Amino acid sequence: MKSNHHSALCASHAAFRKLCLAVSVVLLVVFFPHQRGKADLQNKFHVGEFHFARIVFHTLDDSRNFQDMPPWAHDYPRADRHLLKILAEVTHLRSSGEGYQLVTLEDDQIFKYPWAYVCEVGYMNLTDKEAATLRAYLDRGGFVVVDDFRGAQEWNNFTTQMRKVYPDRGFEQLQLNHPIFQCFYNIKTLEMVPPYAQYLEPAFYGMSDEKGRLQMIVNFNNDIGEYWEWSDEGWMPISLSNEAYKYGVNYVIYALTH
Predict the structure, then answer these.
(1) In a 10 Å sphere around its CB, with 0-12 CB exposed, 13-18 middle and 19+ buried, how is residue 84 labelled?
(2) Comparing C-alpha atoms, which of 236, 248, 181, 245 is closest to residue 214?
(3) Which of 85, 91, 221, 246 has the fewest CB atoms inside 10 Å of its own CB, making it the most exposed?
């Protein structure tokens, strides 16, 4: 009888420990779903997989207006995760929905990734170290997608920051016949409607190296990542979300094949 009581007590304690562990996991998920600490900046790299690398950068003082998140984090991590899932569905790339990674230009971790994304560059304020790292990344064959900024003021700040990277290199407006728009999907028009400011006139710009290799594509007056972020919520027209994914897939395939 004593043995049975002891066994029942042990089983009760074991069940209680399992319950505590489950509650702990739930609390971590509930209260820390979007933490952007050192863990996010370090160990999500998996050899042989494609990763969505999002660039973290220093910002101007007026970026403090973004009280909920820093400018570089807009649409993170949903946009990153969703594009990775689409890539896994429509291409032969190995990628998981959790293969998104924050990368700082303060060290060399960005060199693990051939493709990187940066947004809200109207608030970017590169240090000398960040500019030097970005230049080295591009010179070594890295490719950068610039997204989610608009207007003359933000454009002027972005180009000012890029002159820290390449003092003598500028941007050219890309046309529909550029290979980046035809390398996987044959995109039919560059009239990609901005998700929240339809009065804007979107344009696509590129920066190329001395040999004509496109190093960077710029979605100006647009926010294609916004479509990726909310594509599973029904808030955006399906047709426009599909078009946004076509751009994203093409950007990745172009970067990996040129």
Answers:
(1) buried
(2) 181
(3) 91
DSSP-derived pairing of the beta strands 203-208 and 214-220: antiparallel
- Helices assigned H by DSSP within 91-186: 128-139, 151-165
Nearest-angstrom CA–CA distance, 125 and 55: 13
State the CB neighbour count (10 A cutoff) for residue 30.
Answer: 8
Residue 109 is given by DSSP the state: G
Identify the DSSP state of 59: B
Preceding amide of 77 cis, omega within 30: yes
- Going from the C-alpha of 231 to that of each of 50, 104, 174, the distances in angstroms are 21, 27, 26
Q: Is there a contact between 187 and 246 (Cβ–Cβ < 8 Å)?
A: yes
Tokens 């960005």 locate to 110
Q: Are the CB atoms for 245 and 83 separated by under 8 Å?
A: yes
What single DSSP character describes residue 200?
A: S
Residue 67, C-beta contacts closer than 8 angstroms, at least 6 positions apart: none
> What is the per-residue pLDDT for 67?
67
Tokens found for residue 158: 């972005």
As a whole number of angstroms, the distance between CA 165 and CA 154 comes to 17
The CATH number of 35-257 is 3.40.50.12140
Which amino acid, 156? N
Rounded Cα gap, residues 235 and 238, in angstroms = 9
By CB atoms closer than 10 A (0-12, 13-18, 19+), residue 71 is buried
Burial (CB count within 10 angstroms: exposed 0-12, middle 13-18, buried 19+), residue 184: middle
